[in-house]
Design brief:
It is a single chain. The termini are far apart. This protein has helices spanning 21-32, 73-80, 94-103, 184-193, 242-250, 265-274, 285-288, 290-294, 301-307, 351-365, and strands spanning 8-17, 35-40, 49-56, 59-66, 83-91, 108-117, 120-128, 134-139, 152-153, 169-178, 198-203, 214-221, 228-235, 254-262, 310-314, 317-323, 334-341. It is globular and about 60 Å long. It is α+β, with helices and mostly antiparallel strands. It folds into two domains: 8-149, 2,3-Dihydroxybiphenyl 1,2-Dioxygenase, domain 1, CATH 3.10.180.10; 169-365, 2,3-Dihydroxybiphenyl 1,2-Dioxygenase, domain 1, CATH 3.10.180.10.
């Protein structure tokens, strides 16, 4: 079985470097319904950065900000703005995962490290991936604290759980990376050769294109299929694609969007709209032929249309999805809400409508 040399359990957490961690935690709490569960900073003995842990379902985000002018992540913020620094992967044995990947060509950042405190032992190690994004292998089987050493349970006076408005997000479905023209295959090979992933699906510029722009994408997944990473690169077109725009404003490769699953996308999107989350919209004409194209679905088609949710069907079932607009002032990071009914695809039938919607926003920004 592919991936046996690197058994991965799941995406443990995603770490964002942001300009103001407290404000970012407030945003993800109020807009996306996360519970802010832990804090690390000056008051907990952390002198270099402040961080907050946000949790919802099986999703864990960490938002962190440097506390001093000489912190290396200040340069990262100047270069990228707010964005994803690390995709942490839970493993059985940190040292084995690190040694297996480095021996196959990965560049090590942090060798296997054990941190002990009154709550037990936390183990981690880090390697490089595309751009300056990293993967950290973590194991916290023997750690019983709120997250990791240095973090403490949050004072309810700072973010009261009683005022959180949950939206029903359940788990990470996939995480999409954008890389430069000509680099997609290089990073697909990295995940196959170094991480033991296999290629799951391939989309070319015939699948993902409009009158003006196009991109290419390959999806890799780990041995148990729980972790999926689509890798995008721009393709030649008449105008600047969304990938070109991202690479320009992010100043290089990085995480473009994070897809999070919901057991009830209608309720989730309704709640997120009430929380003032902005979503991409498609023309009403998309829905004129939708019942004929996807057939019968369990959800109310009138509500699907009203909320602007996209639907696609393949031989295994159907899925529903909706994409937020960028959550930063730079047109970089955004999120996807997805609900699957058997389908394991990525909504190929929606690609044209989705990318035309993105292009309309690009035109407003003057970047198309």
């Amino acid at each position: 079985m592919r991936g046996d040399h690197l058994p991965l359990r799941r995406v443990d957490h995603i770490k964002f470097i942001v300009g103001n961690a407290r404000q970012s935690a407030y945003f993800y709490r109020n807009a996306f319904g996360f519970d802010v569960t832990a804090y690390a900073g000056l008051e907990t003995g952390m002198r270099e950065e402040a961080g907050y842990v946000l949790q919802q379902g099986k999703i864990n985000f960490v938002v962190a900000s440097p506390l001093h002018r000489d912190h290396p992540d200040n340069q990262r913020l100047a270069l990228h703005g707010d964005g994803v620094k690390d995709i942490a992967l839970e493993v059985d044995q940190v040292a084995d995962a690190y040694e297996a990947t480095v021996s196959r060509g990965a560049v090590g950042v942090t060798e296997p490290t054990r941190i002990e405190d009154d709550n037990g032992v936390y183990e981690y190690a880090t390697i490089e991936t595309y751009g300056d994004t990293t993967h950290t292998f973590v194991n916290h089987d023997a750690y019983h604290g709120v997250f990791s050493p240095g973090f403490q349970s949050l004072d309810p006076a700072r973010y009261s759980p009683s005022t959180r408005r949950p939206v029903g997000l359940k788990a990470i479905d996939h995480i999409v990376g954008n890389v430069e023209l000509g680099k997609m295959d290089e990073w697909v090979d990295f995940y196959k050769q170094v991480m033991g992933f296999s290629q799951y699906i391939h989309f070319d510029d015939n699948d993902i294109s409009t009158e003006y722009s196009a991109l290419m994408s390959k999806v890799v997944q780990n041995g148990n299929g729980r972790i999926k990473f689509p890798i995008n690169e721009p393709a030649k077109g008449k105008r600047k694609s969304q990938i070109d725009e991202y690479l320009d404003f992010y100043s290089g490769p990085g995480v473009q969007h994070i897809a999070m699953s919901s057991a009830g996308i209608i309720d989730t999107v309704t709640s997120m709209l009430a929380n003032d989350v902005s979503f991409l919209s498609v023309p009403q004409t998309y829905y004129d032929t939708l019942p004929e194209r996807v057939g019968e679905i369990n959800e109310n088609m009138a509500r699907i249309t009203e909320l602007g949710i996209l639907v696609d069907r393949d031989e295994e079932g159907y899925l529903l999805q909706l994409f937020t607009k960028p959550v930063e002032d730079r047109p970089t990071l955004f999120f996807e809400v997805i609900q699957r009914h058997g389908s394991r695809g990525f909504g190929i039938g929606n690609f044209k409508a989705l990318f035309e919607a993105i292009e309309r926003d690009q035109a407003l920004r003057g970047t198309l």
